[in-house]
TrEMBL record:
This is Flotillin. The gene is FLOT2. Pfam families: Band_7, Flot. One of its GO terms (molecular function) is protease binding. InterPro entries: Band_7 (IPR001107), Band_7/SPFH_dom_sf (IPR036013), Flotillin_C (IPR031905), Flotillin_fam (IPR027705). Heterooligomeric complex of flotillin-1 and flotillin-2 and caveolin-1 and caveolin-2. Interacts with ECPAS. Belongs to the band 7/mec-2 family. Flotillin subfamily. Keywords: Endosome, Membrane. One of its GO terms (cellular component) is endosome. It is found in: Membrane; Endosome. One of its GO terms (biological process) is protein localization to plasma membrane.
Length: 428
């Protein structure tokens, strides 16, 4: 008896052995196979893509420049029966990493040998051609192992002496120069072409504008002619219409005037009758009562006039009497005051200095009151002096100035009065 084994499309099944010492081998992928117990052996091998990253460090090129190159390769075991049998013969029983190591060493060897035959510029500037060359050289060797190179690309190329960067700077400068020259030439050509296009455009525009202007002028002339003719006809028709309308209006107005004359005559007759009626009515209702009222008012006015005349005469008499009485009073008061002044003068003359002294003494309180009036608003007066004799001297000075103030106010010289003169001398 035996078992039925199945495999997916990413894996191959190898059934070996059989009855009577058979060396028949069966290769199956994406299917099934029968294996006998004890006398058949089954093994599997992966058909999946394997990614390799071959790397060659410090490999000298044809010019002796040491480069480090890194590539990426996609490989897998081929499914053709003969090639699958070769791959199974060499890799059956090994894991995927062992298969990768074998293929990787092969690719790195070919990569190193090809690097030695090329220049740096060939490797750096045309990587696709370099990768194609590596793939073409390595494909036969790995093909004899039943391995197929699906793709091979150069991932990175660099060196440790800045050869590539210097080469890139030179190439960049050249490319930049060529680009600037190309841009300048393109801008020049574009400017020339743009100017030519603008000139052509302006020529076409001027021609089109000229034709448009000619057409517009012809149109306006024709339109003006048509408008003039239409306006003439319209004016004639309008004038005829207005003339006829004026005639009709004149007839209508004449008829209306005649009607108004008739109506006016009737209205005048009616108004005459109405005036007579209103006149009679006014005489009966207004004029006669008004005349009576006017007569009454006239009588009242005359009585009021007499009354006002009599009142005015009485008031004048009253004022005259009051004036005479007041004049008599003023005259009597004047005579009394004159008599009093006469007697006071005689007394002053009789008593001499004593009378003058009395007059001054009567006047002094009034003078003192007027002098002291501003001091009524002062709450307190403080005389600052460190010497009591100085306060006394200030008081004496004020008293000494008093006669001069009285003389200035009244005209009386107190210093000529014997009593005051004596007192002043004693003060000094």
């Amino acid at each position: 008896m035996g078992n039925c084994h199945t495999v997916g499309p990413n894996e191959a099944l190898v059934v070996s052995g059989g009855c009577c010492g058979s060396d028949y081998k069966q290769y199956v992928f994406g299917g099934w196979a029968w294996a006998w117990w004890c006398i058949s052996d089954t093994q599997r091998i992966s058909l999946e893509i394997m990614t390799l990253q071959p790397r060659c460090e410090d490999v000298e090129t044809a010019e002796g420049v040491a480069l480090t190159v890194t590539g990426v390769a996609q490989v897998k075991i081929m499914t053709e029966k003969e090639l699958l049998a070769v791959a199974c013969e060499q890799f059956l029983g090994k894991n995927v990493q062992d298969i990768k190591n074998v293929v990787l060493q092969t690719l790195e060897g070919h990569l190193r040998s090809i690097l030695g035959t090329l220049t740096v510029e060939q490797i750096y500037q045309d990587r696709d051609q370099f990768a194609k060359l590596v793939r073409e050289v390595a494909a036969p060797d790995v093909g004899r192992m039943g391995i197929e190179i699906l793709s091979f690309t150069i991932k990175d190329v660099y060196d440790k002496v800045d050869y590539l960067s210097s080469l890139g700077k030179t190439q960049t400068a050249v490319v930049q120069r060529d680009a600037d020259i190309g841009v300048a030439e393109a801008e020049r050509d574009a400017g020339i072409r743009e100017a030519e296009c603008k000139k052509e455009m302006l020529d076409v525009k001027f021609m089109a504008d000229t034709k448009i202007a000619d057409s517009k002028r012809a149109f306006e002339l024709q339109k003006s002619a048509f408008s003039e003719e239409v306006n003439i006809k319209t004016a004639e028709a309008q004038l005829a219409y207005e003339l006829q309308g004026a005639r009709e209006q004149q007839k209508i107005r004449q008829e209306e005037i005649e009607i108004e004359i008739v109506q006016r005559k009737k209205q005048i007759a009616v108004e005459a009758q109405e005036i007579l009626r209103v006149d009679k009515e006014l005489i009966a209702t207004v004029r006669r009562p008004a005349e009576a009222e006017a007569h009454r008012i006239q009588q009242i006015a005359e009585g009021e006039k007499v009354k006002q005349v009599l009142l005015a005469q009485a008031e004048a008499e009253k004022i005259r009497k009051i004036g005479e009485a007041e004049a008599a009073v003023i005259e009597a008061m004047g005579k009394a005051e004159a008599e009093r002044m006469k007697l006071k003068a005689e007394a002053y003359q009789k008593y001499g200095d004593a009378a003058k002294m009395a007059l001054v003494l009567e006047t002094l309180p009034e003078i003192a009151a007027k002098i002291a009036a501003p001091l009524t608003k002062v709450d307190e007066i403080v005389i600052l002096s460190g010497d009591n004799s100085k306060v006394t001297s200030e008081v004496n000075r004020l008293l000494a100035e008093l006669p001069a103030s009285v003389h200035a106010l009244t005209g009386v010289d107190l210093t000529q009065i014997p009593l005051i003169k004596k007192a002043t001398s004693a003060q000094v």
